[in-house]
Amino acid sequence: MKLCTLQYEPIDVDALLAQCTNPSDGAVVCFIGRPRNIDNGREVLYLEYEAHQSMAIKELTTIMQKALKQFTINDCIVVHRLGRVDIGQASVVIIVTAMHRKEAFNASQFIIDELKKSVPIWKKEYFNDGSQWKSG
Q1: What tens digit of pLDDT does each residue of 10-26 get?
Q2: How far apart are CA 114 and CA 116, in angstroms?
Q3: Mean pLDDT value across the chain
């Protein structure tokens, strides 16, 4: 399965993992990015994500295609939340399957690094005393 999507609903990681059923997969790497409750000494209450959705999907698809060409992987799933994401909830999930763990780990690292660099998704942190947009 090759999937990249943006969604406002919570990400069901178990349902995504259940879609990884290729019998030749010796490795399934799942990266879950989630908001933490502190940033630069300030208590974070929650995050909010916005995106240029059509451009973000196009860029995510390009990143996924590069990963599929660059690494020996079978499948790839990338799901990113939009809207409010509470502390501890998944904001991004990347699942990569491969015959061997090294390729799956390397592809997952590549995808999250490229996503942070080039996908038009913006994050705003909310605190007790205000909010601020974050970069990267």
Answers
A1: 999 999 999 998 999 99
A2: 5
A3: 96
Assigned token pair, 103: 């390729």
For residue 88, what are the CA distances in angstroms to 28, 34, 102? Answer: 22, 6, 27
* pLDDT at residue number 2: 87
Q: Does residue 16 sit in helix, strand or coil?
A: helix
Please report whether residue 136 resides in a domain: no
Q: For residues 63 and 70, what is the distance between their CA atoms, to the nearest angstrom?
A: 10
What's the rounded Cα separation, in Å, for the pair 118 and 59?
Answer: 7
Does the global pTM surpass 0.90?
yes
Residue 65 sits in a domain whose CATH number is 3.90.1170.40
Which pLDDT belongs to residue 135? 74
Q: How many domains does the chain have?
A: 1
**Beta strand extents in the chain (DSSP E only):** 2-7, 27-33, 38-39, 42-43, 46-51, 75-81, 83-86, 92-98, 121-127, 130-134
Domain that holds residue 36: 2-129
